[in-house]
Amino acid sequence: MNSQIKELPTLGVGASLSLSADPDPVQLAGTIGGPSFIEYAGQVGVESVIEEISQITATGTTVLFHPAYINFCGSFANSSAWLEQTAHHIETVQSPWFAQDLAYCFWQGGAGYATQLGNFLPPIFNQNSLQLAITRIQEVQATIPATVAIEPPPVTFIVGDIPLFEFFGELAIATDCALLLDMGHLVSYEMASGARVLDALAALPCERVIEVHIAGGRLEQGDATPIYIDAHESAILDQTWQMFIALLPLLPNLKAVCYECEGMDEQTVRHTLEKIRQLVRQHSSANALVARLDEIDKP
Amino acid sequence: MSFAEQERALFDLLFDQPLRDDFCARSAAALSDYQLTATERADFKRIRPEGLMVDVALRADQILVHLCRQFPLTFSLVSSLSNGMELLRKLVNRQTMLQLPEDRATQFGLQLQEQLEELVADCDPTLQVMLGASLATELGLTWTSAILKKQPPADQTSAENTRIPDTKMTDSYWIDRPITLAAQVAATLLPQPYTVIKEQLCPVDSIQLWAHLSKNPLTQPKIKTALNTKQPSLFISRAYFSKITPCETQVGQVTLELNDGFAPLLQQIDGKNSVNQIIEQLVDIGASDSIVAGVKTGFKQLLESSIIEVV
């Protein structure tokens, strides 16, 4: 693992919020019991968010940028102008790293946001796709100096037969990148594939996982098993909590746990952040992360 | 036999309904038209059809949230028709989605226009006319925006509110100078002012409108009440660059609604006639002082909005 990943700061337990929407990230930032960092998705141009970001960072809260427009897989190359602007965005807001789902955000020519395809379009899990994903990540790394953390996307169906952790493990080692695991996305993979992600744990370089996401979801009843739908405005499902508890002891370099809570009320956000902090203290093997929570709790 | 062919099949499964239906019935055998090896085809056998259908429905819904922002009145009117919402969902298809992002709304609107006659065949004629006019208006806005987005000015890499409205146009000699229509102008005639009818029939913000209509489609009696009064209107718009950054071009629209009687006068705008010359022609055919005053005011509004320009 590269030294860049090791030297990243430990951020604690934070929240992913929509800027200019409830719950208000500026109000939550820096309050007792609130998030110790704020992750946000936004447009490529930093000028569209800089005012709010400045208000958040003025409270002493770190921000993490989570783009939703980079193709980290597939045949369609990223625009160099968009990558250059992303590098500028990350540098301006001083995001210690950036993370995004490995998925198609745009199709063929023409850069664009994943929302324009409805949502992230998941990758094909086969060897050719893996090679192209390596090319795409290296393309991004060549322009953006900040550490990138690659995240398995939410899925309701699977194409290809490489197990999830094997695919992302090979990718992380080949590109020397970090990883972000979203607990709900892992549950969605298990339901879509019928396979347990932890069965391929040996293939996952756990030391590269620097960030974990946890968020609400809902289940759609399928013929045989349910289908997981990523729904941040909903409650966190029991299966997602169980995945979190199972993985916390396995991630020694975890630096940030992010509750994705766009659309939730402020009280729920505070209660959930507290529950997450308790679970981290109880189960995490990342000593620096636990120490960071203790440091924040000091009067 | 390439990964690109697998990507094409994946995309088509999401946006090509006949293919998807066939796939759900016959699994990967439905992909025989794609140049795939047996191994490549086998990758698709892992798809749970019900999971695919859930993805398609969620994806279409999210895309329609954004399309609804560009066709708010049209979507509201279509929601009142039987199969209307279903048709909108169907038009999030391969034909729409293979376009560049900036062209998708136009392609969607053009497809809707093709289907409109059949969709409204059994409807009240007032609704038929209003729906056609609403779609033409919103398609005009979408189309001119898309055209402009593809022509960012070469001399500007970053700017805001770059061109219009440009009130410098209206100096004291404007009325005597030849006028021309600006680029990226669209005009439509409506049985009622667009802004008035939109306010009545689009009950929530445009970003929430699709979700609202999905649960609460408009009823035809409500539309009939709203369309009860006749106040024909000429809706004119001009697309302009509102923001240009190295990556993105944002386009705004300046809009104006005039009396429908103004429509024939737009034909007179040819880069040679001045407003005074157009007014003289009206006086020659017996136009009253009040009509002349109204015409003069209308042209001044068009000029102040930069929809017309002095040559």
Polypeptide structure, described:
The complex is a heterodimer of chains A (299) and B (311). Chain A contains ten helices and ten strands. With 299 residues, chain A is of the alpha/beta class. Chain A has one domain: Divalent-metal-dependent TIM barrel enzymes (TIM Barrel), CATH 3.20.20.150. Helices cover 54% and strands 12% of the residues of chain B. Chain B contains 15 helices and six strands. Chain B has helices at residues 3-15, 17-26, 38-42, 49-70, 72-79, 84-90, 94-97, 101-119, 125-149, 194-201, 206-215, 220-226, 263-266, 275-284, 289-304, and strands at residues 159-160, 179-181, 185-190, 233-244, 249-259, 308-310. Chain B is elongated and about 80 Å long. The model of chain B has no long low-confidence stretch (mean pLDDT 92).
Give the SSE layout.
The complex is a heterodimer of chains A (299) and B (311).
Chain A: H1 3-6, E1 12-16, H2 25-28, E2 37-40, H3 50-57, E3 62-65, H4 80-93, E4 97-101, H5 127-143, E5 147-151, H6 164-175, E6 178-182, H7 183-193, E7 209-215, E8 217-220, E9 227-230, H8 238-247, E10 256-260, H9 266-283, H10 287-297
Parallel strand pairs in A: 1-2, 1-10, 2-3, 4-5, 5-6, 6-7, 7-10
Antiparallel strand pairs in A: 8-9
Helix pairs in contact in A: 5-6, 7-8
Chain B: H1 3-15, H2 17-26, H3 38-42, H4 49-70, H5 72-79, H6 84-90, H7 94-97, H8 101-119, H9 125-149, E1 159-160, E2 179-181, E3 185-190, H10 194-201, H11 206-215, H12 220-226, E4 233-244, E5 249-259, H13 263-266, H14 275-284, H15 289-304, E6 308-310
Antiparallel strand pairs in B: 1-4, 2-6, 3-4, 4-5
Helix pairs in contact in B: 1-2, 4-11, 5-9, 5-10, 5-11, 8-9, 14-15
